Every structure is written in C-alpha cells, then in structure tokens.
Amino acid sequence: MYVGTCERHLDARGRVALPTNYRSIIGEQCYLTVGHDGCVQVMDRATFDALAEEIIAKVKAGEQTRAYQRAFAGSVKVSPVDKQGRVTVDADLLAHAGIESRATVTVAGALDHIELWDTERWRRLDELGREQMGGVPLCASHSR
Q1: What is the pLDDT of residues 40-50, one digit of tens each?
Q2: 8: helix, coil or strand?
Q3: CA dist 50 to 29, 46, 63, 67, 134, Å?
Q4: Helix (H, G, I), strand (E, B) or coil at 134
Q5: Are the C-beta atoms of 42 and 30 separated by less than 8 Å?
Q6: CA distance 3 to 141
Q7: Nearest-angstrom CA–CA distance, 34 and 70
Q8: CB neighbour list of residue 34: distance below 8 Å, 6 or more residues apart
Q9: What is the pTM of this model?
Q10: Which pLDDT tens digit goes with each residue over 126-143?
C-alpha cells in the first residue's frame, strides 16, 4: 500500500524521486496516466494490469466506450525507475496536473497507487478531504 505524502522537486528533465518506501512496491518500471482531480496517477504493474482488465471488461459489456478505452490507453506512459528512484513524467501529464518544470510537487500515496500533485492544488484538496474525514481517520472496527 502507498501511504503518506512528501514534497519533492521536479528536475529540468521532468524526473521526480519517489519516496524510499514506495520504491520496493513499485518495482523497476511504472505506469503514469492522467489522474482524477488534476493529478498524475502512478501505478505499479499489478495495479495497472488490473485497471486495464477492468476497462476491457466494461467495454465488452457495453458499460464503457471504446473511445474511453483508446483515450486511457493513449494517455499512459511507461517509465523506468532509475537507481535513484526517479521516474520521468511526460510533458503532457505535467500540463494536465498544472505542474511546471523544476516545481515542487507533492507525492501522495493513495493506497493502491501514487499521485503527483501541484503542491498548492494538493493542499486545497487535502484540506477538503480532512474536513470530510472529520479530522479522524476511519478504522475498520468503526465501520461495522
């Protein structure tokens, strides 16, 4: 599971270093795509494969369009994770997230994937999420 947040600097080549605790989970390459609410979504192979299979099944069942499937597949970029734990983020994905070259980005764990955020956008959404939580994380024992 990907949990926690940290701030990192995006270098001039569009690379960002993932936190150490994410590197053993993500593996040697990752899949980056447009994320919800204006972020870049970063997935390991297993998560990406599961999502792709879900999309394929929904298209076959008529629950999702082929146009959506094409747009999603076309937006995905595969990036190796280098020895310093850096991934390269494509310029189109950075533009989608409103992240400029050499900016500070927030790397956020989202349980089954990682999200890269413009730090100011992240702060606003994080504040909204904390308000919705009531300031207290939910526990499995409390949801019964």
Answers
A1: 999 999 999 99
A2: strand
A3: 16, 6, 17, 19, 32
A4: coil
A5: yes
A6: 20
A7: 13
A8: 40, 41, 75, 93, 96
A9: 0.88
A10: 888 888 888 566 554 444
